[in-house]
User: What shape does this take?
Amino acid sequence: MKTKLPLTVAFLTGIFMAFSYFVERDNVDWVRIIYEELNQNNIVIGVFVLYLGVATLIIKHAKNIRDKDSDSIYSWIVIASTFVVSWIGLAQTEGDSIGTNDNFQWVFNNFQVPLSATMFSLLAFFVASAAYRAFRARNTEATLLLIAAAIVMIGRVPIGAVISDALNLSGSFSLPAIAEWIMDIPNTAAKRAITIGVGLGMTATAIKIIFGIERTYMGSGK
Amino acid sequence: MNIWQKLSSIDRRWVFLAMALFVAFPVLKPLGLPVTTTKEVEDIHSFIENLDGTKPIILGLDFGPSTAPELTPMAKALIRHSLSKGIPVLGVSLAPDAPGVANDIMKWAESELNAVMGKDIAYLGYKVGTLNVILQMGQGISKPFPKDYYGNNTDDLPIMEGVETLEDCAMVVGLEATAISDLWIQYAGDQMGVPIGIGMTAVSAPEAYVFYQSGQIVGLMGGMKGAAEYELLVNAPGAAVQGMDAQSLGHIVILVFIILGNLGYFFGTKGQEISRLKSLRDGEK
Assistant: This one.
């Protein structure tokens, strides 16, 4: 039962969702109703996943505090932030709309925005350092990658056009035009190949899940 | 250690310092580098330009604060353009950290563009479920969003007059920091037939060129450069145009360090390695 029930649910749901794309849903009531219900249920499951995420976060950091981990101060901060922000969001919202809660927006603007911006902007420094250390023309492939990256980096920002003008490079030979060509042709060719490959892989995996061949989503695979 | 070896082993704190200086300088003293527009951005602009204003645009505000510097200018330029053409804008979010940013954008439109909330613009908030939310919007926009972000009944908003499903909207413009764009394209675009425009962060934009070339999206804005182009197309240079100088110099700094590293590698480390191999070979002889 423990195995058969989820396999049956996966089979029926998978077959139905695939089938629903081959009929005019709006004209066949029972297909439309089940399709809408399944979509709605998926959203409800998504909400539970959010709670699961919060619970996992708290359990993990509570364990760090209990074990007196050397970084447990950060766990205190995470747990305190979770509860304080949740309290501001839940207790101070009039009605059922967070959009009217100015305190929540204040916390967002003054804590999450600067923290996220700081973390993301550090990327510029680490990318520069990593590029300096790792981007070496060690062989033909690395050299090609290096040249393409340099052209795209310069050609995609305004200074690329300025450098092209200074070097008298115009038309198809200007840095922006070459960068655009790299993005349009080699980049798209590679990306399309990857996309088609991923699509085929997803289809194969979906078929395996629907027919119960792939069972690892149920846990240990037993 | 000779000069070439030193070049290939510069302390990374110097790299950080150079980057900080060259990014900060143009922010304090703008260089005014010329920004040129590209076809993929012009295509979104001309598509909106040719809309008649009877149907709203869905603006997918699917990004949080970390990518806001790239995507917020796109959102503002798009809202400015749409409202100037009398096209209402209906914002939705499929990313959990998006509502705070989206709320600020909507408030900006209210105060800067005198947009009337609920009539010219509306924001329906965030709903968990991504793909299922898009599919449900195809059945009825108010199904996943029965109320807007501010607690009003979605169906009662003046902007929703004559609008029931995604198919009743003029287009969807998804501003994305993740792969949510793929879902807008595959389901709202390919399945429901709604025209799609995409704005992405610079690191993600190369992935969307496939869809632009195949005609699955009407246009594409990539990173701050894409935002700057759109700002120029609507004659309202803003944060993105200002940011292009800093981004230009930032890229130059990275390129200069890559060149220095390679000079050091060829004339230092690699040169030494070649000499060592030569001496080993001579020794064998």
